[in-house]
Amino acid sequence: AGFDADTILALGTQVFLWGIVGARAFFVAEYHEEFFAAGLWAAIPRILNVAAGGLVVFGALPTAALAAWRFAARRGLPLADLADCVAPGLLVGLAIGRIGCFLNGCCYGGPCDLPWSIRFPPQSPPWLDQAARGLLPPVDGTASAGAEAWSLPVHPTQLYAACDAALLAALACAFTPLARRPGAVFALVLTLHPLSRLLLEAIRIDEPPALGTPLSISQ
């Protein structure tokens, strides 16, 4: 696309850092009651503990977009061309991030009896959710590490999302030489990803309905 590697690496660093800020802020706002129940000072360490999980990709869009706009303006770069250039890489990053969600156990799906259903270990987010709802049988101390102590089978929605992002990245690459105007590749991504996310959210059960609707906050 005519950009040198150092420019893209510099952009990536700024977009990554500001994207984390926005993604974390969105998550904290969504679950503010859990963070601020014990007051502001008690909430600060929990908010900063990003390693414990809790990022919402849509929250990263505004802050990352502002960082990219500021970066392009300072260097005199065409923002639409820059967005087209990085769009596939953003999706690859999202695919890798969803594998991280799978390993962490967050963003889990509902009950599933298909051959590729997944059972998560004790104390994982799906296990804790099912235990809180009384779906798991009582486990004594001797059997806690056994197979019966694991969660009930659920949809591996994290892997669905990883495959979705990877396929969309491939589509963005294939569409790039066909795009007729700057920004078209990024526009394609911003059009198709929310549609697939809308469907994936129907399978996920980790987020409660929001704003008095039957829809999740991401939907």
Give me the secondary-structure topology.
Elements: H1 5-30, H2 32-36, H3 40-48, H4 57-75, H5 79-104, H6 125-132, H7 157-175, H8 184-203
Structure notes:
With 219 residues, the chain is an all-alpha fold. It has helices spanning 5-30, 32-36, 40-48, 57-75, 79-104, 125-132, 157-175, 184-203. The longest helix is centred in the first third of the chain and has 26 residues, at 5-30. The relative contact order is 0.12.
Could you list some keywords that capture this structure?
219 residues, mainly alpha, globular
Can I get a quick summary?
The chain is mainly α and 219 residues long.
Percent range of helical residues: 55-70%
Figure out the total of helices.
8
What structural class do helix, strand and pairing data support? mainly alpha
| Rough outline | globular
Distance between the termini: 33 Å
Whole-angstrom Rg: 20 Å
Spell the H/E element sequence. Answer: HHHHHHHH
Tell me the total number of β-strands.
Answer: 0
Q: State which percent range the strand residues make up.
A: under 5%
Which sheet architecture does the biggest sheet show? none
Quick check: average pLDDT?
90
Low-confidence stretches: none
